[in-house]
Amino acid sequence: MIYLELFWTFFKIGISTFGGGYAMLPLIQEEVARHGWMQNAELINFIAVSESTPGPFAINISTFVGAQTGGLFGAFCATFGVVLPSFVIILIVAKCFLRFKNSKIVAGCMSGLKPAVIGLIATAVLSVGQTVFFPNGLQMQGLLTPAFMVSVGIFVVMTVLLFKKVHPILILCLSAVVGIAAGYILHLPLS
Amino acid sequence: MQENTTAKTPSEKARLLLALFLTFLKIGACTFGGGYAMIPLIQRDIAKKHKWITDDDILEIVAISESTPGPIAINTATFVGYRIGGFFGAFLSTFGVVLPSFVIIVALSFVLREFQHIRAVQYAFFGIRAGVLALIIKALWLMYRQCPKSVLAYVLMAAAFVAVAVFEVHILLVIVGCALVGLAASLLAARRERT
Q1: What are the chain B neighbours of A183 within 8 Å (beta carbons)?
Q2: Which of A60, A47, A27, A6 is nearest to B74 (CA)?
C-alpha cells in the first residue's frame, strides 16, 4: 500500500530531523533510494526547484516525493506524515516549556546531535557529488568527458559566487544558462 | 510564559484564529529556502505588526524548535500558533504554513513531468545539479560555523560521516547514538565539576 508506506516513511523522516533546511536531505536520499521511488538526479533537480519556489524545503520535498510516487493523495500522505510528529511533540513541549528549556538532558543530547547532523550532511554532499560528476558510476574515463569538465567548472564558479553572497536563485539561473549553452555547443549526451 | 488567550469572547477568538491562519499562509508563501529563512518574516508579522508575542519569545521558540525532532519550519509555526491561540492556533498556523507549499509543489510536479523530456530542460538541469552541490556545500559550511567546537564534536562529525558513508549504518541509528554520546559526555562533565 503506497499511501501507508509514504505516510510511515515521512513520519520517520519527520521525527528524526533535527534542524532546518538540508538536515533532512541524507534521510530522504536513503529512504527514496531504498524504496526505489526516484533517481538521485531527479531528487537533486528538485532541490533546485524547491529553492526557487515558495515554502520551506522540508515541506516542499515531502510533497514532491509524495506527488511523484502517489499522485495527489500520495503528496497529502507524505506531507501529513512529515508534519505530524512535529505537531504532536511541540504541543507536548509547549505545555512543559520551562522544564524542557532548562533540561540538562536535552542540552546534552543536542551537544551530540549538532555535530552528527554536520557529518550526515557531508555524506549527502558525497552522494550528490557522485551524481553530479559521475552520473554513470565511478570510472576513469568519466574524468575526461566534456560533461565532467563543464560540471566541475559550474560547481567551482558557483561555489565562489555563493561565498561572495550572490543570491541562491541567481546561482541556479546562471547554472541553468551555462548548462543549456554548454549542452548545445558541446553536444553533450543526454542521460 | 502564559497563553495569550485569556478574557476573549468567542467571536474575538475566531477573528484571532483567522488572522493567525492568514498570517502563516502569507509566511509560508513568502519563504524561500529552509526554515531559518522564515524567522525574519515571523518576527515582522507576528511581533512587529500584530504584537501577538515579543521578539524575545520568538527567539526562544526558535531555540526550542532546533532541539526538538522535526523540521524547524513546522516546529516554529506550531509553537508560535500554540502560544497565541492554543491548540486551534497551533493547528491553523501549521496548516497555513504548509498549504502554499503543498498546492504549488503538487501543481509543479505535474508540470515538471510534462517538460522533463525536452532537450533544453535536461541541459538546464544538468547545469543546475552542479549549482545545487554548491548550495549544499554553503549550507554545510554555515552549519559547521554555528556548531560549538570541541574535540568530541569533531570526533562525532567524523564518526557520523564514516559510519554512513563507509559502513552504511542506518542514519537513525547514527542520530540516536550521537545523541546518547553527547548526553553521556555532558553528564560526565557535570559530575566532574561537582567533585
Answers
A1: 119-120, 122-123, 126-127
A2: A60
- Asked if A21's CB is within 8 angstroms of B70's CB, the reply is no
Q: Which of A133, A150, A170 is the last residue of a domain?
A: A133
Confidence at residue B2, expressed as pLDDT on a 0 to 100 scale: 47
The answer to whether B69 contacts A86, with C-beta atoms less than 8 Å apart, is yes
Span B138-167, pLDDT tens digits: 888 988 888 888 999 999 999 999 998 899
Q: Do A19 and B143 touch (CB under 8 A)?
A: yes
Nearest to A112 among B102, B144, B180 (CB): B180
Distance CA A157, CA A153 (A): 6
- Cα separation of B122 and B126, whole Å? 6
Last residue of a domain, one of A133, A159, A176: A133
Same domain, A38 and A98: yes
- CA–CA dist A172, A158 (Å, integer): 9
